Amino acid sequence: MTSVIPAQRTVRVKLATSSVEHDAARRLRHTVFCQEQGLFNGDDRDEIDLTALTLVAIGDTADEVIGTVRIHQQGEQVWWGSRLAVARSARRQAAVGSGLIKLAVGTAHALGCHTFLAHVQQQNVAMFTQLHWLALSESVLHGRPHSLMRADLRCYPPIDDAAVGLLCTKVAP
Ligand SMILES: CC(C)(COP(=O)(O)OP(=O)(O)OC[C@H]1O[C@@H](n2cnc3c(N)ncnc32)[C@H](O)[C@@H]1OP(=O)(O)O)[C@@H](O)C(=O)NCCC(=O)NCCS
Q1: Closest Cα to atom 32, ligand 1: which residue?
Q2: How far away, in angstroms, is 27 Cα from ligand 1 center?
Q3: What top-level branch of life does the organism fall under (predicted)?
Q4: Which of the residues 16, 49, 51, 112 has an alpha carbon 20 to 30 A from that of 75?
Protein backbone atom coordinates (compact mmCIF):
# COMPACT_ATOMS: atom_id res chain seq x y z
CA MET A 1 0.00 0.00 0.00
CA THR A 2 1.31 3.49 -0.79
CA SER A 3 0.16 6.79 0.61
CA VAL A 4 -0.35 10.22 -0.92
CA ILE A 5 2.16 12.75 0.37
CA PRO A 6 0.64 15.98 1.69
CA ALA A 7 2.07 19.29 0.42
CA GLN A 8 5.46 20.20 1.87
CA ARG A 9 5.89 16.87 3.57
CA THR A 10 9.44 15.74 4.09
CA VAL A 11 10.56 12.22 3.31
CA ARG A 12 13.67 10.45 4.56
CA VAL A 13 15.91 8.69 2.05
CA LYS A 14 18.43 6.27 3.52
CA LEU A 15 20.42 3.12 3.06
CA ALA A 16 18.21 0.05 3.43
CA THR A 17 19.37 -1.54 6.66
CA SER A 18 16.71 -4.15 7.42
CA SER A 19 15.18 -7.10 5.61
CA VAL A 20 11.81 -5.31 5.82
CA GLU A 21 13.22 -2.35 3.86
CA HIS A 22 14.97 -4.63 1.35
CA ASP A 23 11.80 -6.66 0.78
CA ALA A 24 9.68 -3.52 0.36
CA ALA A 25 12.20 -2.08 -2.13
CA ARG A 26 12.08 -5.31 -4.11
CA ARG A 27 8.29 -5.18 -4.21
CA LEU A 28 8.32 -1.55 -5.39
CA ARG A 29 10.81 -2.40 -8.15
CA HIS A 30 8.56 -5.24 -9.25
CA THR A 31 5.53 -2.95 -9.31
CA VAL A 32 7.28 -0.23 -11.31
CA PHE A 33 9.57 -2.12 -13.69
CA CYS A 34 7.60 -5.34 -14.25
CA GLN A 35 3.97 -4.33 -13.86
CA GLU A 36 3.87 -0.61 -14.74
CA GLN A 37 6.62 -0.35 -17.35
CA GLY A 38 6.72 -3.96 -18.54
CA LEU A 39 10.50 -3.75 -18.89
CA PHE A 40 11.01 -7.17 -17.31
CA ASN A 41 8.92 -10.28 -17.43
CA GLY A 42 8.13 -11.26 -13.85
CA ASP A 43 11.43 -10.39 -12.14
CA ASP A 44 13.77 -7.42 -12.54
CA ARG A 45 16.49 -8.76 -10.24
CA ASP A 46 19.91 -9.60 -11.67
CA GLU A 47 23.48 -10.37 -10.54
CA ILE A 48 24.11 -6.71 -9.66
CA ASP A 49 21.76 -7.17 -6.71
CA LEU A 50 24.31 -9.50 -5.14
CA THR A 51 26.73 -6.61 -4.52
CA ALA A 52 24.66 -3.42 -4.83
CA LEU A 53 23.71 -1.13 -1.98
CA THR A 54 19.98 -0.44 -1.84
CA LEU A 55 18.69 2.99 -0.89
CA VAL A 56 15.08 3.59 0.09
CA ALA A 57 12.64 6.44 0.71
CA ILE A 58 10.48 5.84 3.76
CA GLY A 59 6.76 6.56 3.66
CA ASP A 60 4.25 7.13 6.42
CA THR A 61 5.31 4.10 8.40
CA ALA A 62 8.79 2.73 8.95
CA ASP A 63 8.12 -0.34 6.81
CA GLU A 64 6.56 1.56 3.88
CA VAL A 65 9.04 2.15 1.07
CA ILE A 66 7.91 4.75 -1.49
CA GLY A 67 11.14 4.98 -3.46
CA THR A 68 14.30 3.05 -4.13
CA VAL A 69 17.52 3.01 -6.14
CA ARG A 70 20.59 0.81 -6.06
CA ILE A 71 24.26 1.67 -6.50
CA HIS A 72 27.22 -0.55 -7.22
CA GLN A 73 30.90 -0.21 -7.93
CA GLN A 74 32.32 -1.49 -11.19
CA GLY A 75 35.97 -0.72 -11.74
CA GLU A 76 38.40 1.20 -9.58
CA GLN A 77 36.51 4.42 -8.95
CA VAL A 78 33.49 3.93 -11.17
CA TRP A 79 30.02 3.54 -9.67
CA TRP A 80 26.64 2.97 -11.32
CA GLY A 81 23.12 3.77 -10.23
CA SER A 82 20.13 1.75 -11.43
CA ARG A 83 16.54 0.71 -10.75
CA LEU A 84 15.47 4.18 -9.59
CA ALA A 85 11.77 3.92 -8.80
CA VAL A 86 9.27 6.08 -6.91
CA ALA A 87 5.76 4.84 -6.10
CA ARG A 88 3.23 6.38 -8.47
CA SER A 89 1.34 8.11 -5.66
CA ALA A 90 4.54 9.77 -4.41
CA ARG A 91 5.91 11.11 -7.71
CA ARG A 92 6.62 14.83 -8.12
CA GLN A 93 5.46 15.54 -4.60
CA ALA A 94 8.42 15.59 -2.24
CA ALA A 95 11.47 15.39 -4.52
CA VAL A 96 11.82 11.71 -3.61
CA GLY A 97 13.50 10.79 -6.91
CA SER A 98 15.90 13.74 -6.66
CA GLY A 99 16.63 12.88 -3.04
CA LEU A 100 17.45 9.29 -3.91
CA ILE A 101 19.78 10.49 -6.68
CA LYS A 102 21.48 12.92 -4.29
CA LEU A 103 22.01 10.20 -1.69
CA ALA A 104 23.11 7.66 -4.31
CA VAL A 105 25.79 9.85 -5.85
CA GLY A 106 26.86 11.41 -2.53
CA THR A 107 27.26 7.98 -0.92
CA ALA A 108 29.35 6.68 -3.81
CA HIS A 109 31.40 9.90 -3.70
CA ALA A 110 32.17 9.28 -0.03
CA LEU A 111 33.28 5.74 -0.94
CA GLY A 112 35.87 7.00 -3.44
CA CYS A 113 33.81 7.29 -6.62
CA HIS A 114 35.33 9.48 -9.34
CA THR A 115 32.82 8.62 -12.06
CA PHE A 116 29.11 7.98 -11.44
CA LEU A 117 27.10 6.67 -14.38
CA ALA A 118 23.57 5.54 -15.14
CA HIS A 119 21.57 4.39 -18.13
CA VAL A 120 18.65 6.80 -17.96
CA GLN A 121 15.34 6.16 -19.67
CA GLN A 122 14.81 8.76 -22.38
CA GLN A 123 11.76 10.36 -20.75
CA ASN A 124 13.85 11.12 -17.64
CA VAL A 125 16.85 12.73 -19.36
CA ALA A 126 15.48 16.25 -18.79
CA MET A 127 15.18 15.55 -15.06
CA PHE A 128 18.74 14.24 -14.80
CA THR A 129 20.08 17.14 -16.88
CA GLN A 130 18.40 19.51 -14.43
CA LEU A 131 20.18 17.60 -11.64
CA HIS A 132 23.62 18.20 -13.22
CA TRP A 133 24.07 15.03 -15.24
CA LEU A 134 25.62 15.01 -18.72
CA ALA A 135 24.36 12.76 -21.54
CA LEU A 136 27.24 10.82 -23.10
CA SER A 137 25.62 8.43 -25.59
CA GLU A 138 22.37 6.73 -26.51
CA SER A 139 21.39 3.09 -26.67
CA VAL A 140 18.42 0.74 -26.56
CA LEU A 141 18.15 -1.36 -23.38
CA HIS A 142 15.29 -3.72 -22.56
CA GLY A 143 13.71 -2.53 -25.81
CA ARG A 144 13.56 1.12 -24.71
CA PRO A 145 15.74 4.15 -25.58
CA HIS A 146 18.20 5.12 -22.85
CA SER A 147 20.95 7.72 -22.45
CA LEU A 148 24.21 6.90 -20.75
CA MET A 149 24.64 9.83 -18.34
CA ARG A 150 27.35 10.96 -15.92
CA ALA A 151 26.78 12.93 -12.73
CA ASP A 152 28.78 16.10 -12.12
CA LEU A 153 30.36 15.11 -8.80
CA ARG A 154 31.07 18.75 -7.95
CA CYS A 155 27.32 19.06 -7.37
CA TYR A 156 27.17 15.97 -5.14
CA PRO A 157 29.22 16.39 -1.98
CA PRO A 158 30.23 13.16 -0.22
CA ILE A 159 27.63 11.75 2.19
CA ASP A 160 29.28 9.66 4.87
CA ASP A 161 26.31 8.31 6.77
CA ALA A 162 23.89 6.78 4.30
CA ALA A 163 22.19 4.81 7.08
CA VAL A 164 20.95 8.12 8.50
CA GLY A 165 20.45 9.55 5.03
CA LEU A 166 18.73 12.80 4.09
CA LEU A 167 15.40 14.52 4.34
CA CYS A 168 13.95 15.64 1.04
CA THR A 169 11.08 17.98 0.38
CA LYS A 170 9.71 19.85 -2.58
CA VAL A 171 10.83 23.46 -2.66
CA ALA A 172 7.86 25.73 -3.31
CA PRO A 173 8.18 27.58 -6.66
C1 LIG B 1 11.62 9.18 -12.64
C2 LIG B 1 11.11 9.15 -11.21
C3 LIG B 1 12.05 8.31 -10.36
C4 LIG B 1 11.09 10.60 -10.67
O5 LIG B 1 10.73 10.56 -9.30
P6 LIG B 1 10.03 11.85 -8.59
O7 LIG B 1 10.01 11.60 -7.15
O8 LIG B 1 8.74 12.11 -9.26
O9 LIG B 1 11.06 12.98 -8.98
P10 LIG B 1 11.17 14.42 -8.30
O11 LIG B 1 9.89 14.79 -7.62
O12 LIG B 1 12.41 14.43 -7.50
O13 LIG B 1 11.34 15.32 -9.59
C14 LIG B 1 12.07 16.49 -9.52
C15 LIG B 1 11.92 17.27 -10.80
O16 LIG B 1 12.35 16.47 -11.89
C17 LIG B 1 11.53 16.73 -13.00
N18 LIG B 1 10.83 15.51 -13.39
C19 LIG B 1 10.46 14.46 -12.62
N20 LIG B 1 9.89 13.49 -13.35
C21 LIG B 1 9.89 13.97 -14.61
C22 LIG B 1 9.44 13.44 -15.84
N23 LIG B 1 8.91 12.22 -15.94
N24 LIG B 1 9.59 14.21 -16.94
C25 LIG B 1 10.15 15.44 -16.88
N26 LIG B 1 10.59 15.98 -15.72
C27 LIG B 1 10.47 15.26 -14.63
C28 LIG B 1 10.60 17.81 -12.62
O29 LIG B 1 11.21 19.04 -12.91
C30 LIG B 1 10.49 17.64 -11.15
O31 LIG B 1 10.14 18.81 -10.52
P32 LIG B 1 8.55 19.21 -10.43
O33 LIG B 1 7.88 18.14 -9.63
O34 LIG B 1 8.62 20.52 -9.69
O35 LIG B 1 8.04 19.35 -11.80
C36 LIG B 1 9.65 8.58 -11.14
O37 LIG B 1 8.85 9.30 -12.04
C38 LIG B 1 9.55 7.09 -11.47
O39 LIG B 1 9.74 6.25 -10.60
N40 LIG B 1 9.24 6.77 -12.74
C41 LIG B 1 9.06 5.38 -13.15
C42 LIG B 1 10.35 4.58 -13.15
C43 LIG B 1 11.47 5.28 -13.89
O44 LIG B 1 11.27 5.89 -14.93
N45 LIG B 1 12.66 5.18 -13.31
C46 LIG B 1 13.84 5.85 -13.79
C47 LIG B 1 14.57 5.02 -14.74
S48 LIG B 1 15.90 5.98 -15.44
Answers
A1: 92
A2: 19
A3: Bacteria
A4: 16
